[in-house]
């Protein structure tokens, strides 16, 4: 379970997973997954082992002497105590490799951010997002009205920050701009895949003067040349399409079991979704929006035309 979020726990049926050992991926300051992500991976691993043992959540609840809802909570990434973990692993008949993997995940999930960590510069609801940006294997982002932060130029950022009311102090704008620019370094990691879908409205809404808009379009064209970045635009000519008014980002992890986490951006905070059924619906929505958008090369030609006409 992810803190500071609106969540709904839904029990889902057992699915087949592949047994593998633990793996490490980079984050912004170390070689660890964000602790909340590790808790989700551990929860999914416990569910896999339970299903492989032919047990239900009710059976698992009898092992711990708790309710079925608590087992659902544990398997959803809510965290598990060491004694509970050992009891479940014992009853599930975990192999030494599986036991070691689960215990390693548990240890990693309890680590705290060190003082001065980059994530601590951001509001609480943004910290997990900042942790996931450099650690996920797949980053999928859909935006309707504003260019995503990790693709924005500095002038575009400053224009957006100045639009807030009450207007932030110049020092705050400078800090927020510097922090957002620092986040863009994740695009340099070619081991990650970044895919963006923008509604044409995000490109037509001019941020500041025409020079700011032209520079932003030029940056998007430059981003398309990166080997690990794809960008598509949904043109106005498409008409209405699924999910056109909902901004979201999907962070995909090739952990075992695999994990996808959806971030829904809101006015003053954000919501993280890791429930398997709900994330599956967003993955379907993503494919529908990809189909509605122009392909990457057609998008490049569209941006070039837009740059010359602005």
Folded structure, characterized:
This protein has a six-stranded mixed β-sheet, with helices on both faces. A hairpin with a 4-residue loop joins strand 5 (259-265) and strand 6 (270-273). The chain has helices spanning 35-52, 57-64, 68-78, 82-92, 96-109, 124-132, 154-162, 170-183, 201-204, 210-223, 276-292, 296-309, and strands at residues 138-143, 193-199, 229-234, 248-253, 259-265, 270-273. The radius of gyration is 21 Å and the shape is elongated. Helix 2 (57-64) packs across helix 3, helix 7 (154-162) crosses helix 8 (170-183) and helix 10 runs antiparallel to helix 12 (296-309). The chain has two domains: 35-109, 434 Repressor (Amino-terminal Domain); 118-309, Endonuclease, Chain A, CATH 3.30.870. It has 310 residues and is of the alpha/beta class. The protein is built from twelve helices and six strands.
Kindly summarize this structure in a few lines:
With 310 residues, this protein is of the alpha/beta class. It has 12 helices and 6 strands. 46% of the residues lie in helices and 12% in strands.
Question: What is the strand and helix layout of this fold?
Answer:
Layout: H1 35-52, H2 57-64, H3 68-78, H4 82-92, H5 96-109, H6 124-132, E1 138-143, H7 154-162, H8 170-183, E2 193-199, H9 201-204, H10 210-223, E3 229-234, E4 248-253, E5 259-265, E6 270-273, H11 276-292, H12 296-309
Parallel strand pairs: 1-2, 2-3
Antiparallel strand pairs: 1-4, 4-5, 5-6
Task: List descriptors.
310 residues; Endonuclease, Chain A; alpha/beta; six-stranded mixed beta sheet; 434 Repressor (Amino-terminal Domain); 46% helix; elongated
């Amino acid at each position: 379970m992810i803190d500071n979020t609106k969540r709904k726990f839904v029990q889902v049926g057992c699915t087949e997973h592949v047994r593998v050992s633990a793996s490490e991926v980079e984050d912004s300051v170390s070689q660890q997954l964000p602790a909340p992500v590790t808790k989700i991976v551990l929860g999914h691993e416990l569910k896999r082992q339970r299903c492989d043992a032919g047990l239900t959540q009710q059976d698992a609840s009898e092992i711990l002497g708790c309710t079925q809802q608590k087992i659902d909570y544990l398997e959803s990434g809510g965290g598990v105590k060491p004694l509970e973990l050992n009891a479940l692993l014992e009853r599930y008949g975990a192999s030494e490799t599986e036991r070691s993997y689960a215990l390693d995940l548990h240890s990693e999930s309890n680590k705290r951010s060190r003082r001065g960590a980059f994530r601590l510069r951001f509001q609480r609801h943004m910290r997990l997002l900042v942790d996931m940006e450099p650690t996920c294997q797949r980053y999928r982002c859909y935006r309707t009205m504003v260019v995503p932060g990790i693709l924005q130029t500095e002038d575009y950022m400053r224009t957006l920050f100045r639009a807030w009311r009450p207007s932030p102090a110049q020092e705050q704008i400078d800090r927020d701009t510097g922090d957002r620019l620092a986040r863009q370094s994740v695009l340099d990691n070619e081991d990650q895949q970044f895919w963006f879908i923008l509604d044409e409205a995000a490109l037509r809404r001019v941020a500041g003067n025409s020079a700011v808009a032209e520079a932003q379009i030029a940056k998007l064209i430059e981003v398309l040349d990166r080997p690990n970045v794809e960008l598509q635009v949904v043109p106005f000519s498409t008409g209405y399409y699924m999910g056109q008014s909902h901004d979201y980002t999907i962070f995909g992890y090739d952990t075992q079991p695999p994990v996808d986490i959806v971030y829904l951006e809101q006015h003053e905070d954000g919501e993280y979704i890791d429930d398997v059924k709900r994330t599956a619906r967003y993955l379907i929505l993503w494919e529908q929006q990809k189909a509605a958008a122009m392909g990457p090369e057609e998008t490049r030609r569209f941006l070039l035309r837009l740059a010359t006409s602005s």
